[in-house]
Amino acid sequence: WSRHLAWSYYDGPPLLAYIIRIVQTIFGTSPYVLKCIGVFCVALAAGVVYLLAARMFDQQVALRALISFWLLPVVQATSITTTLDAPLLLCWSLALYWGWRWLTEDKLYFLYLTALAMGLGLLAKYSMVLILPSFFFFLLGATNRQHLLNPHLYIALGLALLGFLPVIIWNAHHHWVSFAFQWHHGAAHQGLHWDTFGLYWLGQLGAMNPIFLLLLIYGGCRLRLASLRAEQFLWWPCICVFLFFAYNALYQRSEVNWTLPASVSASILLAYYVGRFKWRWLWRAGVIFNIVVMLFLLFPRLSPWLPARAQ
């Protein structure tokens, strides 16, 4: 894939191919080097989660958010493989971090750094586009609407979308085959399927950890999702991602990893709710649960019920 660089590819945008090419040119071609890309991207994303949580709340929430994020089964699965999700997760977390700094510090260069992260994210995976409605719905709030009158916001948005131009050019020369594939793969409507809808939520319970996900939902409902400005900022990405793929699951199967970007803000919200409602013992139980899941994920031979071929 990375040895035949192109503007884009059939199954997705080109950023990961470029990263693989650069890294293997510097460090050599080996499975170890290839796997380190996923580890590195997720580790950086975890660092950004910590910094964002510390800026929004405090160091204790930040540490809890870091632990929660790193131990999520879906994040662990992303870190041990090198797929489109790894750079997407990094770009998504950077867009949230720089976006929050722009909103709270009103410095234009943070707005353009946010646009840079969005543009790179669009080159990482198509689902990065869901961060745009997340920001838009947040800015529609009464305390944030003045930002919608800022012309720099639309210049930055234009620059972010300009980063997607290579994908458009490639598709224009290939009969829009990639867009058609993604539409039929994840958006085409083929009649309601309640079984896939149920499987979607079961998958999210496994990907997020049932304890963590239920605490997150209960905490959000208890505070009506709008107690603090920081909460509103974090909840919109969760809502847009989870509901978009839940709607998709009504018609066809949704993969568990598609909601991965929501794990960034979900981890910070969870960490805040744990401190706010004194749920530390429940959170520790969730951490232990995730560690056990992670051990089985990393060491399949610990699962005696798996057949030999699967191990």
Helix content: over 70%
- Portion of residues in beta strands equals under 5%
Kindly provide the radius of gyration, computed on alpha-carbon positions and rounded to a whole number of angstroms: 20 Å
List how many beta strands DSSP finds.
0
With helices defined by DSSP (H or I, 4 residues minimum), what is the helix count? 15
SS-based class? mainly alpha
Which H/E pattern describes the elements? HHHHHHHHHHHHHHH
What does the average pLDDT come to?
A: 89
Distance between the amino and carboxyl termini: 28 Å
Main sheet record: none
Outline the low-pLDDT stretches: none
The rough form would be described as globular
Verbal overview:
The chain is an all-alpha fold and 311 residues long. It has helices spanning 15-27, 31-56, 59-71, 73-79, 85-105, 108-124, 131-139, 151-162, 165-172, 177-186, 194-208, 210-222, 229-249, 262-276, 280-298. The chain is globular, with a radius of gyration of 20 Å. The two termini are 28 Å apart. 40% of the residues are buried.
